[in-house]
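Dear colleague,

Thank you for sharing your sequence with our group. We've completed the structure prediction you requested, and as agreed, I am returning the results in plain text so they can be pasted directly into your records. Please verify that the sequence below matches your submission; if there's any discrepancy, let me know and we will rerun it promptly.
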Amino acid sequence: MRVYISSDIEGTCGLCGFAETGPESPNGVYFREQMTREVSAAAQGAIKAGAEDIFIKDTNFSDRGVIPDMLPPGTQLMRGNAGDIYGMMSGINTRRFDAVMMTGYHSPAKDDANPLAHNAVRHIETLKINDEICGEFALNAYTAGYFDIPISFISGDKGICDIAAELIPGIVTVPVQEGFGGATVSISPSEAVRMILAGSEKSIKDGYFKKCSVKMPQAFELSVAYESRVEAYRNSFYPGVIQVAPKKIRFKSTNYLDVLRFIHFCING
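Please find the predicted structure tokens below.
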């Protein structure tokens, strides 16, 4: 059995500011270690449940947040940015996976559930798919859905766990903290690791993951509001895009790969 894990840092237990995610911060090393402990726990839980192949995608800002020698045997780690359209799910197209897990995930921009709430990039004000605020989780969930892979487990802030449970009934969630303004209230980091291990194992054991399929929309309509009207104008020339306001563009497709290409060039580019 093969499991794909997308590991982010902003939903890591105890984190409360972007500065703490970087190497220049006194807390940067600690939170990289905690991020790694959490994704290691998810991998260990999957292995306990019978997984034999664990592929981990590091999605920290530099895509180099996970500390390799803290990972358990039986895992593969993808570091760095391949430059493909799959972003935080890079590598998911390289083999057939049975289940997807996510650790350290966070709420989307415009959400007050985490002081670090944001989308893949910070130069956009809002990203919506089919009139719903869309963050990194939803984008990556639909990527898994495109490949017909269930998402069995997620850990991170309470807000993103609630969003995940609404999109994928049955998904096992482990909320490790909750945001209040500029602060977070977290559980014990060691308790987070224990709960992630147990939740990961539960989500795979006895085929539980099979009930966690992603329901894909028939069509996708993206609405992007940029901070800069210059950027909105520039991206209005992407094929199929319509500019609907000085800072806002719209894109439609029935093929999710077209959506990923649009995001790759008009948001992440």
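Summary note from our side: The chain has a mean pLDDT of 92.

Kind regards,
the structure core
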